[in-house]
Amino acid sequence: MKDGFIKVAACTPNVRVADCEYNAEEIIRMAQDAGTHGAKVIVMPELCITSYTCGDLFWQELLLEEAKKQLLHIAEETAKLDAVLFVGLPLEYKGKLYNTAAGICRGEILGFVPKIHLPNYNEFYEARYFTSGAEVDGFVLLKNGSGEEMEVPISSNLLFTCTAMPDLKIAAEICEDLWVPNPPSVAHAYHGATLIVNLSASDEVVGKDSYRRSLVSSQSARLLCGYLYATAGEGESTQDVVYGGHNLIAENGTILAESRRFVNGITCADLDIRRLANERRRMTTCLFSSDREEGEKEPFYSEVFFDLSVEETKLTRKFDSRPFVPGVKEERDRRCDEILHIQAMGLKKRLAHIHCQNAVIGLSGGLDSTLALLVTVRAFDLLGMDRKKITAVTMPCFGTTDRTYHNACMLSERLGTTLKEVNIREAVNIHFRDIEHDPEKHDVTYENGQARERTQILMDIANQSGGIVIGTGDLSELALGWATYNGDHMSMYAVNCSVPKTLVRHLVQYYADTCGDGQLSEVLLDILDTPVSPELLPPKDGVISQKTEDLVGPYELHDFFLYYMLRWTFPPKKIYRMAQIAFEGEYDNATILKWMKIFYRRFFQQQFKRSCLPDGPKVGSVAVSPRGDLRMPSDACAKHWLDQVETLDGNHES
Q1: Which of 7, 26, 46, 397 is catalytic?
Q2: DSSP string, 271-304
Q3: Residue 25: how many CA atoms within 13 Å on its side-chain side?
Q4: What's the Cα-to-Cα distance from 198 to each of 72, 172, 220, 449, 526, rounded to whole Å?
Q5: pLDDT at 21 over 90
Q6: Is 573 annotated as catalytic?
Q7: Annotated catalytic, 46?
Q8: What is the pLDDT of residues 560-581, one digit of tens each?
């Protein structure tokens, strides 16, 4: 439960039709088994105490009394289980029969939630036995094994809230309730539920599993919630239909776990309740009952409380080490094509708006400037403009290698743009003499002097041609402040500004794979194989001596930190815990922690560069534009984040 994680389980026990005693023992056994897996929320199918397929036996007084008796038995036998358990049973209340979900925790029956929408079509005939629980709100009187009476709330508007984890608010709906146009879970989430449990008995017909999966996934996305769906399986009557035990666990639109159909068992997953709460807080359009105008009529919700022990959830959940990059090639290719279009359409609009016929780009032979040129070419093609009006400027200096120089020249040639070479060595040396800087002193002045000279040249060439300078810097560099202020930091339109470094590589790879030009592809592949470097220090034996990732750290780590810090607002300790899992076997804990410290220090220190970024298109869920996603003061203090990082143990295994 620490860091907002909680393990949940959707279970399909073996049942016998109308044998409550047998079913109760199976429920108890499976609940305890789920508990040994660490599950804190356990859900069983609809009417599982009696079985769903009892038919007219639901009218039998003996069956109803036995169901209540076994409910109390289940509560007693799971009293030592550190979990909240939901089971289904028929329950008589004020002379009517209801299809209910009962919440149980540590021997106590917390409440009953009656089903609202009763299917009475095709193979379903629930309205023959049950009454809709839409208007039910009261208390059921039960007697425990000692003869003591207890009042248990019954209402379709119950919230089960964990005192040890207040963000964990659970609400229940039953099977058909999900399949209607306005499911009860909408109101449940509206009133604060972060986890919806669904006790179901959904039979199998061809293709129904896909629709079921879509329903659960989309409902969890719409409501920004976890959704725990447990359905009936083998053991139910097969007189007319078959039940497949198709259990599903979803979180905010993602299916975290799914059972095999036609096999009874336990399906577990780790929900991140804190993530859901953070997302709800961030999305101002996600309004809840507390946000309603005073005097507006709304349904009343009762809250019942349960307690669980606070402990660290042993995570089985996987975390993508490259969250910006889809792992499946087909999806990755689709994403790359989409991003290239977004970048090109952004530049197309800017060029058309200012009636600009020319573009200037500094071409280094590295990944970022390559991507920027590819995007510019696509924008010109969309406008029907001559690629020769794109001026690719190569500006060799102290750190330029033959490899990057020749790749830049070849790239410009194969794309049909105008190549212009301006060797800046002499100009930079004159500048060093003017400011009395020793050129043998390879410090920040030595490096930034070259970067600013290049930017000045690009701006002036753009003035000569009536064009605009296309920026090349990417999102990862901006996050770390790995850019020279008013040097490569500046442009007239920055096409790469929200593309992370880990994705830049795949965009160039995608272009190489799909361009249909063997020579162009060969150049792009060699650029991909070139170490990332600003090439501001002299090479050693003709080889790049200054490798960016040796200085600021691996970009896959920084992109991981960036994604979970900005997109999900997680604190360092949680991101570190996730990184240990994501990068297991790739980076050790000490290495992850070392670069995490660098990330937070640089992220806060370098905000002043992001506060005055040029325009550029947002392409994904994370961006740092001061006019869009990141309204952060340049002088914000990093103390709390760095203090937490210092408490982390680089030798500790998660």
Answers
A1: 46
A2: EEHHHHHHHHHH-TT---GGGSPTT------EEE
A3: 4
A4: 21, 6, 12, 63, 53
A5: yes
A6: no
A7: yes
A8: 999 999 999 999 999 999 999 9
